[in-house]
Amino acid sequence: MSQSPQAGKPDPGTVLGALGSKYSAEILCAAGTPKSAQTLSDDIEIPIATCYRRIEDLVEAGLLEREGRQLSDEGRRTNIYRRTIDEVEIDFSDESPRFSEKRRTEAKNRLQDQRLE
């Protein structure tokens, strides 16, 4: 018997699927500050197409969000992403996996952004 996801929370299977993909953890670690897909691709040294696929999965799972847009060095508008969580705990002791998360707060994002300026 599977539990229905809580309002605003993604299905645990979606989260597990996104986390189980190669490079997802690296993208989440690198996206503690706002970054474009190209910057994430360069930082992690993965192909840009793979990076976009992982970003899409992570956004769908609610672990990464589009924070805004900025101009690239080439003058194109690009999406900027930041992770929405700092920790995820997965519990396999029941019939279906359950997870809990430690969400990033706006205050933490602002403090981190100020350190970069």
Describe this structure in words.
The chain has a single domain (12-116), classed as Winged helix-like DNA-binding domain superfamily/Winged helix DNA-binding domain (Arc Repressor Mutant, subunit A), CATH 1.10.10.10. The protein contains five helices and five strands; from the N terminus they run ααβααββββα. The longest helix has 13 residues, at 48-60. A hairpin with a 5-residue loop joins strand 2 (64-71) and strand 3 (77-83). With 117 residues, the protein is of the alpha+beta class. The strands form two sheets. A three-stranded antiparallel β-sheet has the order 1-3-2. A two-stranded antiparallel sheet has the order 4-5. The radius of gyration is 15 Å and the shape is globular.
Strand count, sense and closure of the main sheet?
A: 3 strands, antiparallel
Strand order of the largest sheet: 1-3-2
Q: Tell me, rounded to a whole number, the average pLDDT.
A: 83
- Put simply, the count of helices is 5
In the CATH hierarchy, the third-tier topology is known as Arc Repressor Mutant, subunit A
User: Which spans of ≥5 residues are poorly predicted at pLDDT below 50?
Assistant: 1-7
DSSP strand content: 25-35%
Helix content: 40-55%
Total number of distinct structural domains: 1
Give the ordered list of helices and strands: HHEHHEEEEH
Find the count of extended strands (DSSP E, 2+ residues): 5
CATH architecture: Orthogonal Bundle
